[in-house]
Amino acid sequence: MTDERKVPGVRPFRGPAGGWDALIAVARALRGQEVIVDGVKTLLRNNQPHGFDCPGCAWPDPKHTSSFEFCENGAKAVSWEATHKRNTPEFFAAHTVSELVTWSDYDLENEGRITHPMLHDAQSDRFVPISWDDAFARIGAALKALPGPDRAEFYTSGRASNEAAFMFQLFVRAYGTNNFPDCSNMCHEATSVGLPMSIGVGKGTVVLEDYDKNDLLISFGHNPGTNHPRMMTTFHNTARRGTPIIAFNPLKERALERFAAPQNPIEMATFSSTPIASSYHQVKVGGDVAALKGMMKRVLERDAQDLAAGGPGKLDRAFIAEHTVGFEALKADLEATGWPDIERVSGLTRDAIEAAGDAYVVAERVIIAYGMGMTQHKFGTANVQQMMNLLLLRGNVGRPGAGLAPIRGHSNVQGDRTVGITEIPNKALLDGMERAFGFRPPQAFGHNAVDAARAIIDGSAKAIVCLGGNFAVAMSDPQTIQAAMRNLDIAVHLGTKLNRTHLMTAKQTLILPVLGRTELDMQASGPQAVTVEDSVSMVHASHGKLPPASQHLRSEPAIIAGIAKATLGDKYGIEWDELIADYDRIRDKIEIVFPEFKNFNARIRQPGGFLLYVAAAHREWRTPSKKANFLVMDGLCEDPRSSSADVLTLTTLRAHDQYNTTIYGLNDRYRGVFGRRDILFMNKDDLAARQLAHGDVVEIEAVPYDGEAPGPRRALRLTAIAYEIPRGCAAAYYPEANLLVPLGHHDPQSGTPSYKSVPVWVRRAA
Ligand SMILES: Nc1nc2c(c(=O)[nH]1)N[C@H]1C(S)=C(S)[C@@H](COP(=O)(O)OP(=O)(O)OC[C@H]3O[C@@H](n4cnc5c(=O)[nH]c(N)nc54)[C@H](O)[C@@H]3O)O[C@H]1N2
Ligand SMILES: Nc1nc2c(c(=O)[nH]1)N[C@H]1C(S)=C(S)[C@@H](COP(=O)(O)OP(=O)(O)OC[C@H]3O[C@@H](n4cnc5c(=O)[nH]c(N)nc54)[C@H](O)[C@@H]3O)O[C@H]1N2
Ligand SMILES: [Mo]
Fold this sequence. Notes:
By secondary structure, the chain is α/β, with parallel strands linked by helices.
């Protein structure tokens, strides 16, 4: 931000990530939600043995036995849930839904925890309280009245526990459909689809201890200082150990540059910090495949040089021969890819890419960690597979200190998938369900998030039941989905706080308030624990302890059981009440369906929980070829629409003060934005090329894609600021920018919306 002009709320942030600013932000978060008294106690209990799992991110804990790991954004997530603010029937009586839809997302959630089950009354356009029994009866009647079970959509957001998610899939499969759109479809689906093709499993292959053993860490497209702050402990330790860290990110994210660990007394006392990335590559948005191909070209070149000099080469030939197929095809593809194209598409110089390739060649144990900057593209699956190709070249999978690390989003998004939230059930899942419950669930593939949105828009879907989340805001093309939701017969939301999706009222709409992760869950047999799986496949228990926000709340499993009984009666003889009385019984069933959960109830009682078996981490390849596959991606994944000089490629990001669609506050401290979110980050030369100045209000319009049906013109007004971002690229905040993303703009392989590469025109606002 070199420009002279002062733009309100925009000023450079010069400090490191973490440090005192983070501590101050925690104090503010706690005060803002009126949790001063028990706030500290609550925080101390999270991610501890017998504490609750932090509802923030899915980063693992050091065996769940460490001393309190400080995390600013975990503190915000906990205080947002453990707030003393209450959203009561009196509030709903005072505001019509038509009024509430004009409120901001922040204001809606800031009303606090919903205290009663609520039903929309069309006459008064207000939500009114309803008893649980009446709510269940209405939902059951509406679901039974549909022409068929495939006419309903069952959405899951990744905060749901294993127990809740398993009950949900049991209910939905017994009802008769595989329509399971879930937040994972918008998140790491490119990982879940791409990695099984490469290595036979859709999960990461490293565990936390591997981060003590690697001698190179490469970070692609994630922002840990904001989204996985506990991972900064790992980055900090890695950097202090002298292990190089290479970052590929179009934006200079502060935490990847410099970090002060709040646990480090010296850094805190001296206002110093630790440099994190040893080299930082500001790749163009969507330029990662080009950068990866360039690095791999360099590895092959270094290999050839070494062989010519009489050395053993730089590839792990024994590994490639024994464990992989497809190397020759990859090599041919790399040879056919020219440096001029690699430089143009990546926006990086050949020298820079070669230097990264050289660092890779000299390292013995390499971990690549990545996030949404890689998955949320039209070629997200290819992105994931090219990272794996790079690792396979030197056998960097299935040995200590090496592997691929998808950094997951929601705290249990990985677990939800493990226990059956999937629209594409495999035989093992269907067999398992039959073993456990004596019925064979439907086999036909159901809807993912994009399919579900389409079905709502075209009117074929008549009902939606949401286990958490904010579907109609998080998705691409939200305005079309929101309008279409009005035509549903019924919409049911299990949630903690009011959000915009709840307000898209159907013929009948119910909001069912749930117990949060932090709260005591008392059932017939006593207090219950739930379980979650983190980013490295560790499963552990979470014990809520705080008194519930209202005496009318029910747990997610209990609400699902209530809906199931009202919908299914005694179909298949499933004993819903028994399962709810003691969650050990739910876990016993999980163990029958998924044998990897053997001795589930015993192992979950060990401190720290247990690790699920990830075959590829043991060099066991569950692919059709029984080998790890080098997978070729033709070309460099360019979007032809972006080649025109007047088009920018827009990426959408999380600010520091938000959790997905939940906006905690309006600051994005590390990027120097305060008190506002209506910002478009642009390169100063791209501003100049449009005769724009730092601080001008602009209109951003999405470039239509081939075959897009004529629809509403997608345009958004933001204030453009000069920022250090590669030319041809721009960035704006999610979810505001979602209206620029057409529904059809997604990875054809995984269905992941292309939120991170949207071709747009930017012009001065009229
Ligand atoms: N506090 C907090 N924690 C969270 C969340 C939250 O909203 N708030 N959300 C949770 C969820 S569900 C998820 S999925 C994760 C998300 O965590 P991240 O994956 O870190 O998510 P994003 O903010 O979307 O940022 C992605 C990063 O990718 C970069 N990027 C954008 N486009 C490209 C590209 O084309 N190439 C490359 N190499 N980089 C690119 C951006 O500059 C940004 O640094 O965090 C989880 N944790
Ligand atoms: N443009 C753009 N769009 C994106 C992304 C992006 O990077 N860019 N990221 C995508 C990603 S990675 C994801 S994961 C999705 C997120 O999509 P979602 O998971 O659907 O959205 P969230 O904002 O996490 O959901 C917030 C709501 O969850 C409810 N909630 C909170 N805690 C609980 C609980 O314990 N139980 C229940 N039942 N409800 C609870 C509250 O009512 C809250 O309003 O968005 C996607 N959309
Ligand atoms: Mo996510």
